[in-house]
Design goal:
- There is one protein chain.
- The chain contains 16 helices and 31 strands.
- The chain has about 600 residues and is of the alpha+beta class.
- It folds into 3 domains: about 200 residues, Phosphoenolpyruvate Carboxykinase, domain 1; about 270 residues, Phosphoenolpyruvate Carboxykinase, domain 3, CATH 3.90.228; about 80 residues, Phosphoenolpyruvate Carboxykinase, domain 2.
- The strands form 7 sheets. Strands 1, 4, 5, 6, 7, 8, 9 and 10 form an 8-stranded mixed sheet that branches. The protein has a 6-stranded mixed sheet with strand order 14-12-13-25-29-26, with helices on both faces.
- It starts with 10 loop residues before the first helix and ends with a helix.
């Protein structure tokens, strides 16, 4: 249960809690111990306050549905700031703000913002508690929704404070920005979803290892261990300390002989990342197990290889599109002990979202709290509706997913949603070339994204919204890590091999050429065998590609013509894309690493030949 007395003697922590208490003026301060009773207490609080509803206890045991305010439903990139002392340190792709000015702005908003509320102190570990790759944060929040979600997404409680001792931690301050006692002494009733929709700020002070979030109670805006700490702050820590914080899944791949390889993969949104992390392979005898579905922290081990942990303890997944057809293991993971946000509520007390089942329910209550039936012009669930579930409930979670030493990464995949130009799979020629491929990756916009349909949006390493500093300097850090891992132009050294995949190539008539989902195991098999030095590859101007014989296509219904197109090097397409790559790189000016300039020049030369 939450404690009213401090659970730590760390002087820096006690002083900080005292400082925030004086500024935000909560009615009480409670320290979170991470117990099951505490988690249940938060769920009960949300149900009693009208924030949440219990779901059918038979169909979905110990699970709740939460409906947010319509003005607080997603990440708010235009209200997300990197507050470092020099603007160029944030780079051209981040919103920069002067740290002193931002603190002044926020202190005015935080003043008295928790009046009538409870301030919860959440000690949390990103990664297994005590792991040499893990780091500790403390989140101060006035939201029971945040406390409950942090229980699922991180390791919370007294055990974290025991490991912390008097050490340093990342400071994470959050408020929904809706005090219940006002400056004139009057009080107001709480809302089912309190927020300050007009005044959202998600701010990062990377030099001070601090996150200040105000006004939003939703997702990564409020669960500050997620993108804010695990990527934006951690990417700066990683650069300073010589490791990597990446927006990558981690999977364990085992062949029929029991040999294991670990693969990390970075894809922009809507590219099947969670599906790959929990894949059911179609090749007999091969097994995929999940280590993590979203974030990888990688440090060099004693043997000089990169070892990765999943710093999270749960899944915070997009619900719409998730089904037993697309991702059965995700569906099994959310059968109990889960928090659902902005999904539809069926008449028998279960959740539903678009594409969850072949048949739509005849009636439900939509995420606005209104009646919904098939044919409605409104979605039953918000497109960014979410589920939060403990990772240990996943049927294919790897038995060693919480190994404090991490798992050795053999291969890294980059990918995006490309209808043309990019082949099914390409192996990079070297670590530097792989960094180049990651730096130019992107997706063609889907109908749901802002901007023109089909327009290419670059999302380097899937880190564009999440890199806590200048992205060109982040690429330089990648190159420096390769040198540390003894990678050269002719040898991978001890670094993972890098591959660029594209499950989304289309025919001229607009048909997907590759079936995807479990069939992607055929590509993983080739990647596995390349790491062992066994599978054949053909050198091309864009990298090494498999020939048709190198891929295991037994039992696969893909025509020879389609396969040829999937593995074709479209020299004209790549040549036509060069100006777009140059324009992308030009945004970073003199910060662009020389190594990437050299790779672009080399690609041009190879395409001419």
């Amino acid at each position: 249960m939450t404690a009213t007395t401090a659970l730590s003697k760390n002087p820096k922590l006690l002083a900080w809690v005292s400082e925030i208490q004086a500024m935000c003026q909560p009615d009480q301060v409670l320290w979170c111990d991470g117990s099951r009773d505490e988690y249940q207490q938060m769920l009960d609080l949300m149900v009693q306050g009208g924030t949440a509803k219990w779901l059918n206890k038979t169909k979905r045991p110990n699970s709740i549905l939460v409906l947010s305010d319509v003005g607080d439903v997603a990440r708010v990139e235009d209200r997300t700031y990197i507050c470092c002392h020099k603007k160029e340190e944030a780079g051209p792709t981040n919103n920069w703000a002067d740290p002193a000015q931002m603190r002044d702005t926020l202190r005015k908003l935080y003043a008295g913002c928790m009046k009538g509320r409870t301030l919860y102190v959440i000690p949390f570990s990103m990664g297994p508690v005590g792991s040499p790759i893990a780091h500790i944060g403390i989140e101060l929040t006035d939201s029971p929704y945040v406390v409950a979600n942090m229980h699922l997404m991180t390791r919370v409680g007294k055990k974290v404070l025991d490991v912390l001792g008097n050490g340093d931690f990342v400071k994470c301050l959050h408020s929904v920005g809706y005090p219940l006692k006002l400056a004139d002494g009057s009080t107001r009733k709480d809302l089912a979803w309190p927020c300050d929709a007009q005044n959202k700020y998600i701010t990062h002070f990377p030099e001070d290892r601090e996150i200040w979030s105000y006004g939003s109670g939703y997702g990564g805006n409020a669960l500050l261990g997620k993108k804010c700490f695990a990527l934006r702050i951690a990417s700066v820590m990683a650069r300073d300390q010589g490791w990597m914080a990446e927006h990558m899944l981690i999977l364990k791949l085992t062949n029929p002989q029991g040999v294991v390889k670990y693969v990390a993969a970075a894809f922009p949104s809507a590219c099947g990342k969670t599906n790959l992390a929990m894949m059911e392979p179609t090749i007999p005898g091969w097994k995929v197990q999940c280590v993590g579905d979203d974030i990888a922290w990688m440090k060099f081990g004693p043997d000089g290889r990169l070892y990765a942990i999943n710093p999270e303890a749960g899944f915070f997944g997009v619900a719409p599109g998730t089904s037993y057809a697309t991702n059965p293991n995700a569906m099994e993971s959310v059968k109990a002990n889960s928090i659902f946000t902005n999904c539809g509520l069926t008449d028998d007390g279960d959740v539903w979202w678009e594409d969850m089942t072949e048949e739509e329910p005849e009636h439900l209550i939509d995420w606005h709290g209104k009646d919904w039936a098939p044919g409605s012009d409104k979605k039953a669930a918000h497109p960014n509706a979410r589920f939060t579930a403990p990772a240990h409930q996943c049927p294919v979670i790897a038995p060693n997913w919480e190994d404090p030493a991490g798992v050795p990464i053999d291969a890294i995949l980059f990918g995006g949603r490309r209808a043309t130009v990019v082949p099914l799979v390409t192996e990079a020629r070297s670590w530097r070339h792989g960094t180049f491929l990651g730096s130019i990756m992107g997706s063609e916009k889907t109908a749901a994204a802002a901007g023109g349909l089909g327009q290419l949006r670059r999302d380097p390493m899937a880190m564009l919204p999440f890199c806590g500093y200048n992205m060109a300097r982040y690429w330089q850090h990648w190159l420096a890590m390769g040198q540390k891992g003894q990678a050269t132009d002719t040898s991978w050294g001890k670094m993972p091999r890098i591959f660029y995949v594209n499950w989304f190539r289309k025919s001229s008539s607009g048909k997907f050429l590759w079936p995807g989902y479990g069939e992607n195991s055929r590509i993983l098999k080739w990647v596995f065998e390349r790491c062992e030095g066994k599978a054949q590859a053909i050198e091309t101007p864009i990298g090494n590609l498999p020939d048709k014989q190198a891929l295991d296509l037994q039992g696969l219904d893909v025509s020879g013509e389609d396969l040829s197109e999937l593995l074709r090097v479209d020299k004209a397409g790549w040549t036509a894309e060069l100006p777009s790559i140059e324009q992308h790189f030009a945004e970073f000016g003199n910060d662009l690493p020389q190594g990437l300039r050299d790779e672009l020049a080399a690609l041009k030369q190879r395409l001419v030949k």
